[in-house]
Design goal:
The structure holds 2 protein chains of 2 kinds. Helices cover about 50% and strands about 10% of the residues of chain A. In chain A, strand 4 and strand 5 form a beta hairpin. By secondary structure, chain B is an all-alpha fold. Among the domains of chain B are: about 55 residues, no CATH class; about 90 residues, Winged helix-like DNA-binding domain superfamily/Winged helix DNA-binding domain (Arc Repressor Mutant, subunit A), CATH 1.10.10.10. The longest helix of chain B is centred in the middle third of the chain and has 31 residues. The chains are: A mainly alpha, B mainly alpha. At the A-B interface, helix 1, helix 2 and helix 3 of A face helix 5, helix 7, helix 9 and helix 10 of B.
């Protein structure tokens, strides 16, 4: 094993701990010794690599937290065994409730339009199939507030509901509402 | 300076002793003072005044120094702390060097073997606390890796030569002796450079390091390195031309010599610039 320059001074030089005289000694040696220059360069690359690693950590950490929040949200939204109590006293989970709402909602494009009374509610169509309470849910689930189309167009009906003074337009009329 | 501290030094040593964990490792104040004095004596001359000792003591990484002394003395908790704290870091550093898990583990573990001195004086006693222990360990690791790499390179070259698949030197390689006047002129110009400028030139032209790498090495910005390399190169060229003109050549001959002969003496320039690694007694 060959004799080497004092690594204490070399590492202190790398850490900028040396004063003028000793720094000059190290510089002079470095200008003459390729091994020590390689050694110093290698130490520098180690520092750079570990610095990059440290800088990458916050990104990973923040990404991890964001992913965890998303998973938590989705789990709560769809799979959490959260239990709700219905008005009649029975219980249901959020998942069940969502499925029920989906099943109840007719495959219709429902939109709200305030104070549009061009077409009145057909006699007998008292929304018994879609009571106001569930209509609110329907409106929320399929919240697509497109303008009410002309009453002259076929397959369109405008219903007045208990949701205040508003009109509900059902673009695709379920079978029960056909004229 | 004999081992006789002034009052200010004694106060400083007492303070450092209290701040360090020397007591935990069973080091007495007298032993601690001796350790500091012996360490400082490696860097300060015999006629150095107490003020210099004081300044040096304050810059030492005392905790690391005490830890290594405790390890050398066989203190089990110190060993445990050293291994627990630094072995993972060294293995990681070795992995960055070797890019091979097995080789990295072997390199880092062999360094620990050397530290505790399988034969002769434990290497850990050569740590003086001028830089951090982590920095010193990484420097030792890097040097160990470079030594191994150089040995392996030599073995490969010899092996190649023996089987005749590749010659050590190309067959067409012919050392062309440069004009001695040009060589002298270049050597003179390089000798006049300061160590910092010589380091710049060698790192940039011979080691082929980037400006950014050199900048990090000597702690200046790469744009500063770029400016200085240009400036130093220009200075060297001017000095070489002036020296050649003074030696009796005319300007046309000088230009021809520089244009045609610069590459031929490149190896000689390397010899001129590179010295042997100066051994400094640790």
């Amino acid at each position: 094993m060959p004799e080497h320059f004092d690594l204490n001074l070399l590492s202190a030089f790398a850490e900028q701990k040396l004063s003028g005289g000793e720094r000059e000694i190290v510089l002079r040696h470095l200008s003459n010794c390729r091994v020590c220059r390689d050694c110093l360069a290698m130490m520098d690359s180690l520092v750079q690599t570990s610095r990059k690693g440290r800088e990458a950590h916050p990104t990973i950490w923040i990404g991890g937290v964001a992913a965890a929040i998303c998973i938590l949200f989705l789990a709560t939204r769809f799979y959490a065994p959260a239990v709700r109590t219905r008005r009649d006293g029975s219980t249901t989970s959020i998942l069940q409730r969502t499925q029920e709402l989906r099943n109840r909602v007719p495959l219709a494009h429902i939109s709200l339009s305030a104070f549009d009374n061009r077409t009145s509610l057909p006699p007998g169509s008292d929304l018994s199939l879609s009571p106001p309470a569930s209509l609110r849910s329907v409106a929320l689930v399929n919240a697509s507030f497109v303008p009410v189309s002309s009453a002259t167009e076929p397959n369109r009906i405008t219903l007045k509901t208990a949701l205040g003074d508003r009109w509900i337009s059902v673009d695709t009329i379920p079978a029960r509402f056909e004229r | 300076m004999a081992f006789d501290h002034s009052q200010a030094l004694d106060d400083c040593i007492t303070l450092l002793f209290q701040e360090s964990n020397a007591i935990e490792y069973g080091l007495s104040l007298a032993e601690f003072a001796r350790l500091l004095f012996d360490t400082a004596s490696k860097y300060l001359g015999p006629d150095t005044d107490a003020g210099e000792f004081l300044r040096l003591y304050r810059t030492l990484h005392i905790g690391d120094l005490v830890l290594m002394q405790a390890c050398a003395a066989g203190n089990a908790s110190a060993w445990e702390l050293l291994i627990h704290t630094y072995r993972p870091k060294l293995r990681q550093a070795a992995l960055m060097m070797t890019r091979d898990h097995d080789a990295a583990r072997e390199l880092a573990d062999s360094l620990f073997g050397e530290l505790f001195g399988a034969a002769g004086k434990p290497k850990l006693l050569s740590f003086t606390g001028r830089g951090s222990l982590e920095g010193w360990l990484k420097a030792t690791l890097a040097q160990s890796y470079i030594d191994r790499y150089r040995v392996e390179q030599r073995l490969i070259r010899l092996d190649d030569h023996k089987v005749g698949s590749r010659a050590i030197f190309p067959a067409s390689f012919e050392t062309e002796v440069a004009d001695s006047r040009l060589e002298r002129a270049v050597a003179g110009a390089l000798a006049e450079l300061g160590s910092s400028d010589r380091l710049l030139l060698t790192s940039y032209f011979f080691d082929r390091r980037t400006l950014a790498e050199i900048g990090r090495m000597i702690h200046v910005h790469e744009s500063t390195v770029s400016r200085r390399v240009r400036k130093v190169t220009k200075t060297v060229r001017k000095k070489v031309i002036r020296s050649l003109l003074e030696s009796g050549l005319d300007r046309r001959e000088v230009n021809e010599m520089i244009d045609s002969g610069a590459w031929r003496i490149s190896l000689d320039i390397e010899k001129l610039i590179y010295g042997r690694c100066e051994a400094v007694q640790e």
